[in-house]
Design a protein that fits this description.
Largest sheet: 3 strands, antiparallel
Distance between the termini: 33 Å
Strand order of the largest sheet: 1-3-2
Radius of gyration: 19 Å
Order of helices and strands: HEHHEEHHHHHHH
Helix content: over 70%
Length: 217
């Protein structure tokens, strides 16, 4: 039985199901029913029902009459997600640079050091976590809640395809270097350069994700 904290149970169930859908644990076309999820997760129908409602609002599932059919994130969805990120992530890097705090500076430096450490060990799982943390930290440093709240779900929804991309060792090495250059630009206070570099980073990531999806299916 999956263990959940007592606070915001519906939110925890939603986040668990969202991750499982995005990462392909529940593939596109699979039917999810309340009864099945109650048995799998070990919680009552009420948080399950609320989580399914939120997943439907996120367009990750749709009601089929027999249960909720998984829509997931298609390659077409990925292109749209990355196109949007390409256009607004530079704005996040710009504001993160302008609003950089001492604590934010330390956090970015720590993430950069950890990325180097995990890359030397070729620790893919932790590198993926550091990729999440790097971008989320920039979003949080913007001081712009609307911008942050727009970017966090976009980044999260590309998780499955980012995992595919990060398994490309050549792209992984380049991505780490791009992160380092973005970090240096932010730390040096060059907001325009940070915006330019992170936009190019998203463009490169999108190209790699799409190519690998076509190559590996």
């Amino acid at each position: 039985m999956t263990e959940f904290k007592s606070i915001s149970l519906a939110t925890q169930v939603f986040e668990k199901l969202e991750e499982d859908i995005i990462t392909g644990v529940y593939p596109q076309g699979e039917i999810l029913t309340e009864l099945r999820l109650v048995e799998q997760l070990g919680v009552s129908r009420t948080p399950i029902r609320e989580a399914l409602r939120r997943l439907e609002q996120e367009r990750l599932i749709a009601e089929s009459g027999k249960g909720s059919v998984v829509l997931g994130i298609t390659l077409e969805d990925l292109v749209d997600l990355m196109d949007i990120r390409e256009r607004i992530e530079g704005l996040a890097a710009y504001h993160a640079t302008k609003n950089l705090t001492d604590a934010g500076r330390e956090e970015l430096q720590h993430i950069s050091e950890l990325q180097d450490f995990y890359f030397a060990k070729q620790d893919i799982d932790n590198l993926r976590k550091m990729d999440d943390k790097f971008h989320d930290t920039i979003y949080n440093l913007t001081g712009r809640p609307v911008l942050r709240d727009a970017l966090i779900p976009l980044h999260r929804k590309s998780q499955r395809y980012r995992k595919i991309s990060i398994e490309d060792k050549d792209r992984l090495g380049k991505s780490i270097q791009e992160h380092k250059a973005i970090c240096n630009a932010i730390l040096s206070g060059d907001a325009d350069l940070a915006a330019e570099l992170i936009t190019a980073h998203i463009q490169h990531a999108k190209k790699n994700m799409i190519e690998r999806c076509y190559r590996h299916g």
